Amino acid sequence: MEIIIQPDSRKASLVAAKITAALVREKPHAVLGFATGQTPLEMYGILVEMHRTEGLDFGQVTAFNLDEYAGLDPAHPGSYHSYMRENLFRHINIRANRVYIPDGLAADVPACCASYEERIHAAGGIDIQVLGLGTDGHLGFNEPTSSLASRTRIKTLTGQTRRDNAALFGGVDQVPHHVITMGLGTIMACRTCLLLAFGRKKAGAVAAAVEGPLTAMVPASVLQMHPRAIFILDEEAASELTRTAYYRWVYENKPDWQKY
After folding, report:
1. Is 117 a catalytic residue?
2. Which of 78, 81, 241, 246 has the maximum number of C-beta atoms within 10 A of its C-beta?
3. Which positions ≥6 away from 31 have C-beta within 8 Å?
4. 105 CB contacts (<8 Å, ≥6 apart)?
5. Which CATH class is domain 2-252?
């Protein structure tokens, strides 16, 4: 695991955007995996600005989203179809036929999940998967006790996760109980995992995922086994880590060809 600690979320988001942009420039037909929620918004804003001012070209990029609420129409403002459209896709030149988001209205959910896995495989696998981190250590919507080998499937949300997502629905009672999410095994098959975590409320989950034991009770801890997992944190999210001096030293002393 690589741990990058930045002074604030803006600088952290800039590092994440630079890593993603470098891949897109080097590999124009890159396959990108996107996450939702508050955490990646600054990163997406920076990518939009790079597209607008630097000509960052998403015309050949293929995109897959981590998850979607089950039973929610794509037009619903709380859906992740709406989130991605409003916060990224409508501002860049990505092609609609290269964007894949789980179908929350699928009549046959297991078939929908199997098809999603097949599409990822047909695209050549995901080059960079952007990730957030739940306050309980969940990854995607893989709640604690999720199988570390799981693939795309339906999951039942915990009360905490529903409370964390209540703002977009006008109250916790309106938040769906179920989601379709990439599994931990799906995430682990991505070539690079780029996890962003900001704020003190994420500090405990960050410490458990990075320095705690590998356990299904902290799903993000599975990234300890990933060949290229990059945690990009602000100071507050890193505040409960015990080896911050080492992480900073490693980042500051990278060889030139590894710097972002």
Report:
1. no
2. 81
3. 61, 62, 63, 64, 120, 123, 124, 125, 126, 127
4. 71, 72, 73, 74
5. alpha beta
Q: What is the pLDDT of residues 180-226, one digit of tens each?
A: 999 999 999 999 999 999 999 999 999 999 999 999 999 999 999 99
According to DSSP, the β-strands at 178-181 and 67-69 are antiparallel
Q: How far is CA 248 from the centre of its chain?
A: 23
Tell me which of 138, 164, 226, 234 is the catalytic residue. 138
Using only the alpha carbons of the chain, give its radius of gyration. Answer: 17
Question: How does residue 130 score in pLDDT terms, banded at 50, 70 and 90?
Answer: very high
- Residue 145's region, left for phi above 0, alpha for psi from -120 to 50, else beta, is left
Catalytic residue among 127, 143, 164, 234: 143
Strands (E), 77-131: 99-100, 128-131
What is the rounded CA–CA span in Å between residue 228 and residue 245?
Answer: 21
Tokens (6 digits) for 37: 């929620």
Q: Which of 68, 103, 127, 136 is catalytic?
A: 136
Question: Pick the catalytic residue: 42, 67, 234, 235?
Answer: 67
143 labelled catalytic? yes
Q: Which of the four pLDDT bands, split at 50, 70 and 90, describes residue 174?
A: confident
Distance CA 39, CA 104 (A): 22
- How far apart, in whole angstroms, are the C-alpha atoms of residue 237 and residue 122? 36
pTM (two decimals): 0.95
127 is catalytic: no
